[in-house]
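Sequence design from tokenized structure. All designs in this work follow the same two-part layout: the structure record, then the generated sequence. An example of the structure record is given first.
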């Protein structure tokens, strides 16, 4: 029987409240233990909340842009249920596994920390036209 595990907002987050910035997984997606599932943003920092267990994302309790206080349940993960298996025998012989094509730089997701977002807004700079010097080309303050 499948068990539901709560995905909880961190108790030691910076600031009093956070906002659900984006869900990195959708309902029905497989998640691995410690894999980032949702991104929260406070007035000071953006934090990724990792899955406490491996399973299937069963429910999103707080939608994107909703306010999340410390310790609130963000979503639920179903564990103990076998995911639909894609077996190698199901593929015809000689078929190659499709590898995702790398995304072009123009289509890359622009993820900015709150301080960078504020600095860009105050300076009147469009961050989408900049190349970052941080890890994986991220913009840093």
């Amino acid at each position: 029987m499948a068990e539901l595990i709560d995905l909880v907002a961190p108790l030691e987050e910076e600031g009093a409240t956070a906002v659900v910035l984006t869900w990195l997984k959708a309902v029905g997606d497989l998640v691995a233990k410690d894999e980032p599932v949702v991104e929260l943003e406070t007035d000071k920092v953006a934090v990724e909340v990792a899955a406490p267990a491996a399973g299937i994302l069963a429910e999103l309790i707080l939608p994107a842009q909703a306010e999340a206080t410390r310790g609130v349940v963000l979503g639920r993960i179903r564990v103990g249920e076998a995911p639909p298996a894609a077996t190698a025998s199901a593929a015809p012989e000689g078929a190659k596994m499709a590898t995702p094509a790398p995304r072009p730089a123009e289509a890359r997701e622009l993820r900015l920390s709150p301080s960078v977002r504020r600095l860009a807004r105050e300076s009147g700079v469009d961050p989408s036209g900049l190349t970052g010097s941080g890890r994986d080309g991220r913009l840093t303050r």
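DSSP finds one helix and eight strands in the chain. We note this feature because it recurs in several other targets discussed in the main text.
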